[in-house]
Write a structure and sequence with these properties.
Residues 324-370 form the PucR C-terminal helix-turn-helix domain. The chain is an alpha+beta fold and 393 residues long. The chain is 51% helix and 18% strand. A hairpin with a 2-residue loop joins strand 7 and strand 8 (167-170). It is elongated, with a radius of gyration of 32 Å.
């Protein structure tokens, strides 16, 4: 399609230099752009009989015609009257061809991206399991083999906010965000860690999803290690953008279309959990938030019966309670090694031992009695941080 808005300014400037009217005509003979807008939709039936030559085609007195060729096909004709030198006309011809070719590439990329977004949305819908064959055909028409095992990688692009005088100011207009999102999409698609079988598209406003394909499942451990490497790499690739905070996670490797939704939900829930735990950006590793995940998955009755009463005791003790809890958590993380804990916290070993005794008196949980007490003390420390993060938000 010949885009009038793109080529109109160039025609007007060339016409002013040439001192003649210049038309761009589609292959059917209709004027689609002109240096004189009144000539729009004027008909040039003679172009139907023109053929490609090395030089301009001169017909009917002073009329000249040059073809506009895009992808080896005539997309239209440049038409003018008068004795303009061929070299000058060729410059305008080349300029118009480049403009139109770039516009066509942009349109093709746009429509391809929209088709892939629609495919991703359908693959992640609840009804995907009942539309397997249809979705496989659609994917195959776009070049994707859904018979391959896949894992869903999710990149959340959350707009950054500038807090200034307690007013939230977005750092860019929506149009700028959309432009940057398209650039990020192309950057991800062109990355060496991704192949032609990896379906990449936006899902909703903030989620960029990748259906990462694998050829075999012989060594699942190595595949998950590869996913971790890819996620960390993708974060490093786009983390320096100025408009979005980036969080990355992945879900399970699945072999059926119905499993893609589950894989996506695992990754999205991990990102949400990481955010609630204070991970504002970066790759979200499940191992890093294992205890946070356990606390969040506990039934309300267990939180209310065990964690909340213990938490209230810590709150009632003020700064001392927080200090004691942080010390015992550090000791648990160091396998109850008093020396390592003291070195980590820059405390005397006797101070660490004393605090362990005091946490026992405060909570009734003795760190020296074994796993059960240590488990609940660790969960209590994590619970306090989650409550604090929630209150600050």
């Amino acid at each position: 399609m010949l885009n009038q808005e793109l080529i109109q300014p160039l025609l007007e400037r060339a016409a002013a230099l040439w001192q003649t009217a210049i038309d761009v005509v589609d292959p059917g003979g209709q004027v689609v752009a002109s240096s004189e807008p009144s000539r729009l939709h004027f008909y040039h039936p003679e172009v139907l009989g023109l053929s490609l030559t090395e030089d301009g085609v001169r017909v009917q007195g002073e009329s000249y015609y040059l073809p506009l060729v895009i992808n080896d096909r005539v997309a239209g004709w440049l038409v003018w009257q008068g004795g303009v030198k061929g070299e000058v006309a060729t410059l305008l011809q080349v300029a118009l061809e480049e403009i139109l070719a770039a516009a066509r590439r942009r349109d093709q990329q746009y429509f391809t991206a929209r088709e892939e977004e629609a495919l991703v949305a359908d693959l992640l819908a609840r009804e995907a399991a009942s539309r397997v064959e249809e979705l496989k055909v659609r994917a195959l028409n776009s070049g994707y083999d859904l018979n391959l095992p896949r894992a869903v990688i999710v990149l959340q692009l959350e707009p950054r906010e500038n807090r200034y005088f307690n007013i939230n100011l977005h750092l860019g207009y929506d149009v700028t965000e959309e432009q940057l999102k398209e650039e990020i999409l192309e950057q991800i698609k062109g990355d060496l860690y991704l192949t032609a079988q990896d379906l990449v598209a936006y899902y909703g406003r903030e989620m960029l999803v990748i259906f990462k394909a694998f050829l075999e499942l012989e060594n699942m451990g190595r595949l998950y290690q590869a996913l971790e490497v890819i996620c960390r790499h993708l974060y490093e690739l786009i983390k320096d953008n100025r408009l979005f905070a980036v969080r990355v996670a992945y879900g399970s490797i699945v072999t059926e279309i119905a499993g893609l939704r589950q894989s996506y939900q695992e990754a999205a829930e991990l990102i949400a959990l990481g955010h609630s735990c204070g991970h504002n950006s970066g790759y979200i590793d499940f191992e890093d938030i294992l205890f946070e995940a356990l606390v969040c998955s506990l039934p309300g009755r267990l939180k209310g019966r065990y964690l909340e009463p213990l938490y209230q005791k810590i709150v009632a003790a003020g700064e001392e309670g927080i200090q004691l809890l942080e010390t015992v958590e550090a000791c648990i993380d160091n396998n109850m090694n008093i020396k390592q804990t003291a070195e980590q916290l820059y405390l005397h070993r006797n101070t660490v031992t004393n605090r362990l005794e005091r946490i026992k008196l405060l909570t009734g949980l003795d760190p020296g009695t074994g796993f059960r007490a240590l488990f609940w003390l660790k969960m209590l420390a994590v619970y306090r941080r989650l409550v604090q993060t929630r209150d600050e938000a």
